[in-house]
Write a structure and sequence with these properties.
The chain is mainly β. The chain has a single domain, classed as Tumour Suppressor Smad4. A hairpin with a 5-residue loop joins strand 11 and strand 12. The longest helix is centred in the N-terminal third of the chain and has 7 residues.
């Protein structure tokens, strides 16, 4: 397919998507394991919101609710900030995160290390993701 056709197919309601799924993308349903993100906010003491990660091979994180699956409401989160992508590695299905050239960065775990831009980083059980300066945290389970 031509680049123009691909660009046209990679938009939702006229909004150009910054992310195209990896060539080895696969839904986590294929191995019957259940993946969740637990969204903890520092603004309240309620139970975390459990976000099931299933049925599709990737989830876009960002402020633009018209194209994103997970929408942290904070000005430092880019409209299309990051993606969580499930990929087939050998016989296993593994979750990865990729920063979509966000302005304020994507962070993994306590060391507050900013992830490299536009590179997949594998996620493991218990990893904590933060997006920009948003105080909420997302725990991978």
């Amino acid at each position: 397919s031509s680049g123009i056709l691909e660009k046209q197919s990679n938009n939702i309601q006229g909004t150009q998507l910054k992310y195209t799924p990896a060539s080895d993308a696969i839904s986590p349903n294929k191995d019957h394991r259940k993946y969740y993100l637990y969204h903890y906010t520092s603004l309240d003491t309620k139970e975390p919101v459990r976000i099931p990660l299933r049925d599709v091979d990737h989830f876009i994180v960002g402020r633009d609710a018209s194209v994103c699956d997970i929408v942290p409401k904070h000005s430092s989160v880019s409209k299309q900030h990051a993606a969580i992508q499930f990929r087939k590695v050998g016989s296993a299905i593994r979750p990865y995160v990729i920063d979509l050239e966000s302005i304020n960065g994507t962070y993994l775990n306590e060391n507050e290390k900013e992830l490299p831009v536009a590179r997949f980083v594998e996620l493991i059980n218990g990893d904590v993701l933060r997006f920009g300066d948003y105080e909420g945290e997302f725990v991978v389970v």
